[in-house]
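To: structure subgroup
Subject: Chain for Friday's discussion

All,

I'm putting the inputs and outputs inline so they're searchable in the archive.
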Amino acid sequence: MLGSIAEAEDIVQEGFIRWHQADRSQVRSAEAFLVRTISRLCLDHLKSARVRRETYVGSWLPEPIFDPSEEETDSDITLTLMMALER
């Protein structure tokens, strides 16, 4: 649902914390409580401003063109810079 294992793990941990803080005498079904809690946490995360800000809407950078005939110099960092920007 989130598209990232790390984000999913964070949501499950938050759900686990809420499960331990919940008054279990008021919970009729543990499964329903956990499914609803995790689902709502996921939806809230996807609606958050942070996720929308991190989504890149522009076009990706062009692939660097490697020309073996050109002599590389120490000051030429174009390929390295393009690879860093892509990451």
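Points worth raising on Friday:
Residues 5-86 form one domain.
The chain is about 55% helix and 0% strand.

D.
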